[in-house]
Amino acid sequence: MKIAVIGSGYVGTTTAAVLTSLHHHVTAADIDITKVKKLKQGILPFVEPGLDKFLISMLETGRLNFTADIYQAVKDNQVLLIAVGTPSRADGTADLRFLQSVADTIACSIHEYKVIVIKSTVPVGTNRWFSDYLGNKIGNPHMFDVISNPEFLREGNALQDMLHPDRTVIGGKSQKAIQIVKEIYESMQSNLLVTDWETAELIKYASNSFLATKISFINEIARIAEHAGADVVEIARGMGMDSRIGSEFLRAGIGFGGSCFPKDLKALIATAKELGADSKILEAVEYINRTQPNFYTEKLNRLLQKIAKRPWKIAILGLTFKPDTDDQRESPAIQVVNHLLEECEEIRIIDPTIQTRNQTPWPHEQKVTICRTTTESLSGADAVILCTDWEQFSNIDWKEAASHMRHPVLLDGRNMFDPDDIRSAGMRYLALGRGE
Ligand code: UGA
């Protein structure tokens, strides 16, 4: 099949490469010419493990092309798959301006029947709106059909998630279009769910919000465990042994970030409000997550006030919202740094994806230093905070680390370490709901 994928972010690029591997002819289009030039050469403008090699092998098949000419991509392909961003507005609602601009482009270039597949995460009602908007614009609602086909890719794991999806959700009205989209994914072994637009849209929001709920739930349990003197990691392990609960997304810590959970949660709350429905659980999930980083920093504050002279020097391990990505959007690590800046003389950050201060939210903040080695970041520090559980941090020699620090204190924001191991290395171990 001939498919155009509009939007070359991590979702669009991964989708384009995987569809190529399913023997389709794919044109990936994006308005950003610099990005297109890089992708044409097989260079990813973002970090996504495994995708770089896969992309090159797909480019070599000759079936995958990148272009900045969206008009031509629309003209040349029967299936148009849209994977543009839908960022949050200040009031939490999703900003659909990129989607509208794609609709405008399609309206100018459409000459024959197209199946338009919306992969972007869009609020309930968007597929219907898109269909009406485009139909009115071109004055002919029979020239196209719209299908909702939400994606469930995780950043850092996008390629594997796309190659082996748990489910494929296809939402739409037209049987002809549903059949065409089914054929696109035919050779993939995944559970297929065919439904209507609104249900497909809500499956995506409900899934992300449920995973976010699991995280905020275990984070609330961590706060209770903190008072009870219990260990939240053991609690999560015990809960996860119940197959009805499952062990995933029960890692307590400084909270969830990224471009999806915080945004989708806010958008679903806004949707519920618009529709006049309750969203009490979702609001609580958002509240726990918003306040979670401060629980950690305040715990550290209380200890440092007793043992270290202000202003402090703090080392930060990891700034991205999770490992294996260069994405810092809504990263709780940023909140941790912001909360501590005033009390500190220096904050030394190490993250495998950051080389200069310009790549942080504090390009002009003299107190923020970017380090190349862990030893450099720890040298003279009053405490170190693990914010992102990058694999490389698991190999730190804490005995040696302690010898470089002014006060050997570790605040483990991701419960990455065994408290006994850290303590036996001569470090003081702090976390939430794990003892001390
Ligand atoms: C999430 C979903 O997992 C994907 O299924 C979905 O497609 C994607 O959003 C999207 O809507 O595009 P992603 O945001 O890439 O994927 O990352 P996750 O791996 O889900 O992690 C999100 C955040 O939760 C991270 O900050 C992570 O550190 C945190 N987290 C995750 C926890 O704090 N505890 C956990 O147990 C799991």
Automatic annotation (TrEMBL):
The keyword Iron is annotated on this UniProt entry: no
Catalysed reaction equations from the record: UDP-alpha-D-glucose + 2 NAD(+) + H2O = UDP-alpha-D-glucuronate + 2 NADH + 3 H(+)
TM spans (from-to): none
Classification via InterPro entries: 6-PGluconate_DH-like_C_sf (IPR008927), NAD(P)-bd_dom_sf (IPR036291), UDP-Glc/GDP-Man (IPR017476), UDP-Glc/GDP-Man_DH_C (IPR014027), UDP-Glc/GDP-Man_DH_C_sf (IPR036220), UDP-Glc/GDP-Man_DH_dimer (IPR014026), UDP-Glc/GDP-Man_DH_N (IPR001732), UDPglc_DH_bac (IPR028357)
Active site residues of this protein: C260
Keywords: NAD, Oxidoreductase
EC number(s) per entry: 1.1.1.22
SUPFAM superfamilies per record: 6-phosphogluconate dehydrogenase C-terminal domain-like, NAD(P)-binding Rossmann-fold domains, UDP-glucose/GDP-mannose dehydrogenase C-terminal domain
Binding positions (NAD(+)): D30, K35, T86, T121, E155, K263, R329
MF terms (GO), sorted A to Z: NAD binding; UDP-glucose 6-dehydrogenase activity
Domain of life according to the entry: Bacteria
UniProt keyword Hydrolase present: no
Pathway: Nucleotide-sugar biosynthesis; UDP-alpha-D-glucuronate biosynthesis; UDP-alpha-D-glucuronate from UDP-alpha-D-glucose: step 1/1
Domain called UDP-glucose/GDP-mannose dehydrogenase C-terminal: residue spans: 315-419
Residues the record lists as binding substrate: F152, L153, R154, E155, K204, F249, L250, R251, A252, G253, G257, K322
Any coiled-coil regions, as ranges: none
A Pfam cross-reference name: UDPG_MGDP_dh_C
An annotated GO BP: polysaccharide biosynthetic process
PANTHER family according to UniProt: UDP-GLUCOSE 6-DEHYDROGENASE TUAD (PTHR43750:SF3)
Family of the protein in this entry: Belongs to the UDP-glucose/GDP-mannose dehydrogenase family.
Protein known as: UDP-glucose 6-dehydrogenase
